[in-house]
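Subject: two folds for Thursday's group meeting

Dear M.,

Sorry for the delay on this. The cluster queue was jammed most of the week, so I only got both jobs back this morning. I'm pasting them in the order they finished. Each block is the input sequence followed by the predicted structure tokens. Could you check whether the formatting survives your parser before we put anything on slides? The first protein is the one we discussed after the seminar.
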Amino acid sequence: MLDSPAKPALKLLLASPRGFCAGVDRAIHIVEKALERYGAPVYVRHEIVHNRYVVEALEAKGAVFVEELDEIPDDDRPVVFSAHGVPKSIPLEADAREIFYLDATCPLVSKVHREAERHHAKGQQIVLIGHRGHPEVVGTMGQLPDGAILLVENVEDAERVAPDDAQALAYITQTTLSLDDTAAIVATLKRRFPAIQSPHKQDICYATTNRQQAVKAMAERCDLVLVIGAPNSSNSLRLVEVARQSGAARSILLQRATELDGIDLAGVATIGVTAGASAPEVLVDEVVQRLGRDFDLDIQDVEVTREDVHFKLPAALSA
């Protein structure tokens, strides 16, 4: 009997931290606890987090995902608002219909909402740095009346934005942006509007920051970086951008290990793997196992910090 040929060697760098953040973990647990307490169906407005694997797993347990409350046929069933946050009009609509709702908005997104309200109460107009149409941006802009928040997506927008009063201006940011890209936008705003007020504490969340720093720490050593996440996940897309900007010109977003079949790995000696904040660790394990089928893996962790953040569940579920 002939021995099977030896598999080629492949160094696999695993970024740490990666995957679920505390806000995502909390949001998923809110849906699961609501199903346990109230039974199925539990409705969820928008994807609870941007990951199809997570959404489909919750659907299998009895969650029903809708984009708007008018899609919910039964006012007697609970509804959960996604981790991205919602405009103020949504809970008002739920109250008008007497729908019981649970708010799974990430506490760090809620912090940005409250920050916007404080600026508005002081008579300041607000510049929001973020991506047009993203649910978090829609939710944040929906906290205040039209015109109170001006959206800026890039440096070009920052050069053009025209506030009502440059002396009564503040900025806030979407929580899942690239640190480096945001820094350039902020620098432009501060040059144009020296009196603009900054957040007391950076709005980009700790998990986004940590995952980007971990990618930066390994990118130069990689022939290829694989970012596990969804194409509508802002933090996952930013990880691809950060990897490319940090030395891994070949960086790819993938949702599942099966997508590796379409990637040419010829000549690749070192692969870096990370996952967006809404991607579960099981998908990382899936990719590692798939690579291990064809390669003799040398797996190394690239850890920049350890996370121990936990957010409480809503009182209605923790009682």
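Second protein, same layout:
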Amino acid sequence: MRVAIQGELGSFSHEAAERMLPGCAVVPCARSAEVFDRVQNASVAAAVIPIENSLAGTVAEHADLLVSREVFVQAEYRLRIVHNLIAAPGVRLGALRRVLSHPVALEQCRDFFRKHPRIEPEPFYDTAGSVKHVVAERMADTAAIAGRHAARQYSGKILQAGIEDDKRNFTRFFLVRKLADPKSRVSRRKRPVNSSLSIHYGAPVPRGANKTSIAFKVKNLPGALFKSLSVFALRDISLSKIESRPLRGRPWEYVFYVDFLRGDDEPARNALRHLGEVAEFVKVLGIYRAA
């Protein structure tokens, strides 16, 4: 199975893809939009994307793409993020003057830089890409911060392992597939259709799915958000996440992202139909088994 990721081979996305789909062939992409393009044009069977880090928060671009593209989340995975100081073979810690990595990784290793004030952090486009660069160029005074996967991929040497500040650092990944034609799915399942509600019932839902991700926009009316959230409270449905993001192309308007702890069952369907009556739009992003 060909699976797209954003970033280089050896990245945390690469590691997550192999854990979620053992034996898959990972296809690295330079940009997130390219990942979603490949899923939609079926040049890959699926994609594995980071959606949220326990310290840095939501990956905004991926959240936006899930709303704008015809894709469906089928699984989630939580990967423990362990940052390592990696250099070319033969390089010693005492020789370092710079460390390259993605800005988020550098920010998560502030204690390391406080302990080594002579070493300057320098932003790079990708964690694994920084290892690839310092090893390929045989840089004698520069190292990178990335996972063990990157060290193995590019034959780098780990000078220090586990240099992240917070040991409870996790990234949540989604397995994303192409969405089939909504009309054929609805007619086949013979379920009611609400014109303001995009429920993709025909997308394959994993057995034992107990979590749903949605996005919705409320109408600009008093109490609109309260009414939207009440559709879950009335049915004793627990929300595990709620977050708002600006709606692209419509300044000062916002989309709410919600995860709730139910699968494709009657209370969840009733809540979504009810939400469709009080919200301007609703999109079900995925139904899957909670990690």
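Two things I noticed about the second structure. The CA atoms of residues 100 and 122 lie 5 Å apart. Confidence is low (pLDDT under 50) at residues 182-198.

Cheers,
T.
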